[in-house]
Amino acid sequence: MNKPVNCRYFYGDYFRGKNKEECRLLAANPNNPYPWHRSLCNTCPVPKILIETNCPDLMLEAEVRRKFLRQRVEVTFAVCGKHLIELEDPRHCPQCARDQQGGSAS
Q1: What domain of life does the native source organism fall in (predicted)?
Q2: Where are the domains of the chain?
């Protein structure tokens, strides 16, 4: 059974009997090797990253990859939209951390 999805990239249209669902993060990547299906949301790391990050302007790119006969969503690229720097860890932007420390000291 699918868990409820609490992710800004998940789109579901159920109006008047429609049952259209999609991941807009994966849909934005034209080089995605595998198609999206609803069960990928159950193990997707993106909602947790969005909660844990210190960057309010985080921009992500992800794709579906196959590992050990299972498909998983993996974040392939992360950028801080405010400072325009590529992030090695999408959970931590060093510039945003400095801004937050400087803002609380005033």
Answers
A1: Bacteria
A2: 10-105
